[in-house]
Amino acid sequence: MVNTQKIITPEQNLDRDCTTLSRHVLQQLQSFSPDAQDLSALMNRIALAGKLIARRLSRAGLMEGVLGFTGEINVQGEWVKKLDVFANEVFISVFEQSGLVCRLASEEMENPYYIPENCPIGRYTLLYDPIDGSSNVDINLNVGSIFAIRQQQGEDLDGEAKDLLQDGYQQIAAGYILYGPSTVLVYSLGRGVHSFILDPSLGEFILAQENIRIPEQGSVYSVNEGNFWQWDESIREYVRYVHSQDRYTARYSGALVGDIHRILMQGGVFLYPGTKKQPNGKIRVLYESAPLAFLVEQAGGKTSTGTQNLLEVIPEQLHARTPLIIGSKIDVELAESFIKKELC
Ligand code: AFP
Fold first, then answer.
1. Domain boundaries 10-209, CATH class
2. Residue of 87, 88, 115, 86 whose CA lies nearest to 102
3. How far apart are CA 310 and CA 20, in angstroms?
4. Span from the CA of 342 to the centroid of ligand 1 (angstroms)
5. Which of 125, 277, 287, 300 is 20 to 30 Å from 168 by CA-CA measure?
């Protein structure tokens, strides 16, 4: 008789090495110190927010309150979507009574949200865009969340959070969650960029890729060409040049996180330049461009406003915006060269 019983070796017990996010943070910091434990717990809470948002998105169209607008206009002057409100509150609720962060500042809130009971011990501030690309929600396309962690500096007794008006190098960690066919979390603690995929059956983010390196050059350029006549001549010249080159193809999803994820994996460049109406463009420094610049630079890419490294930008106010050119080193330098040429 043939013995059909398969012998399972310990390595075959698991499909892959199941490194969870919290374990990964501790491995990265090579420490079990209180600070390392705090950062691990912080990342775990951000992951929990991501799971709650992903679960809600997976039911869009099946349950009340996911699709459509609330009828209100936010601090950015944009119509608020129901999912923006839900996701903003999810981040607040996962950090309440956590002892981890004293303040949360979000694209959706005019002023930071303080959690006084955390303040004596919670030395961190979470900055976040709860739903990036929210116009994609109603048509079942990808959206994302963007986050950054900064150390609180000073007491902030007047509640103006002026210590947040500093450059992007002050970020301790940054990342995004992409809600696509699968839910992917990408983060950096300033020690490389790593991605995790949510395994719905485990309810855990499992390590997918460590030390992601963005290709030096890519074939994708990503920009809203609907704004062509709103741009400076230098950007129009750049886009005309790109059109004339065989090696470029265009991709634009309407959600920055999705476009950046593509560029992180495959190379290329994303641009959101200033327009006549909005000289600083649309992208917010603290909630979008600084966290994404932190990631892209950690992955070996380049970031620019056109004239300055994005991480050097010091916002004048919490909701300040900046033009954005970000991606593969060679592609960003090419776009920059058109802007610098015009300035000469
Ligand atoms: P929303 O979150 O308001 O949809 O904005 C998304 C976003 O900030 C960014 O994710 C997109 O890349 C960009 O705006 C799209 O803006 P345009 O429609 O002006 O190209």
1. alpha beta
2. 115
3. 31
4. 27
5. 277
- Distance from residue 160's CA to the centre of ligand 1 (Å): 27
Tell me the pLDDT band of 8, cut-offs 50, 70 and 90: very low
Render pLDDT for 34-55 as a digit per residue (tens, 0 to 9): 888 899 999 999 999 999 999 9
For domain 220-343, say whether CATH 3.40.190.80 is its number: yes
pTM of the model: 0.92
- Which atom of ligand 1 is the closest one to the Cα of 129? 2
Rounded Cα distance between 161 and 238, Å, is 38
Question: Which residue owns the Cα nearest ligand 1 atom 5?
Answer: 133
Q: How far is the CA of 287 from the centre of ligand 1 (A)?
A: 13
Distance CA 49, CA 47 (A): 5
**If DSSP states are collapsed to H, E and C, what string results for 104-169?**
EEECCCCCCEECHHHCCCCCEEEEEEEEECHHHHHHCCCEEEEEEEEECCCCCCCCCCHHHCCCHH
Walk across the sheet containing 249-250 and list its strands: 249-250, 220-222, 269-272, 324-327, 302-304
- For the CA of 226, the nearest atom of ligand 1: 20
Nearest-atom number in ligand 1 for the CA of 283 is: 8
Domain boundaries, the chain: 10-209, 220-343
The tokens of 301 are what?
A: 């890419």
Which residue from 135, 282, 286 has its CB within 8 A of the most atoms of ligand 1, so it is best to mutate? 282
Which residue CA neighbors atom 15 of ligand 1 most closely? 254
Q: Span 236-260, mean pLDDT?
A: 97
- Alpha-carbon gap, residue 291 to 295, rounded angstroms: 7
Exposure letters 67-99 (e unless 16+ CB within 10 A, then b): eeeeeeebeeeeebbbbbbbbbbbbbebbeebe
The CA radius of gyration of the chain, in Å to the nearest whole number, is: 21
Indicate the helix (H) or strand (E) that contains 202: none
Q: How far is CA 167 from its chain centroid?
A: 17
